Amino acid sequence: MVNDQVDRFFEVLADPTRRRVVQLLGEGPRRAGHLAEATGSSSPAMSRHLRILLAAGLITDERVPDDARVRIFRLRPEPVVAVQAWLDQVQAHWQEQLGAFKKHVEQRESS
């Protein structure tokens, strides 16, 4: 399950515009128009990117009470936490491997 979430995260973020959208939403909630302007995308292109990010569960949207046409997009922390946990596991593995290699080299040098 977690690996599927991590795979989907990287698949969706293979696109540089979507990476920029996630970066912008990491700074705070934004409207689609602001995201399109900040990324240099057209409104239809931004709409497609946002649909992909929503479907992947990386972002959420909410309607503004006074105007149902306006949506505010927010980054969801859960997928980022899952990727961070995966990266921590990878790092722990490599730390262990490097530690074992260092110990091996030190033992050979002392022989």
From TrEMBL:
Matching entries from Pfam families are given as:
HTH_20 (PF12840)
Per the database record, which ranges form the HTH arsR-type domain?
1-98
UniProt GO MF annotations: DNA binding
CDD domains given in the database record: HTH_ARSR (cd00090)
Q: Which keywords appear in this protein's UniProt record, sorted alphabetically? A: DNA-binding, Transcription, Transcription regulation
Q: Name residues in a coiled coil.
A: none
**Protein name as it appears in the record:** DNA-binding transcriptional ArsR family regulator
**Organism of provenance:** Kribbella orskensis
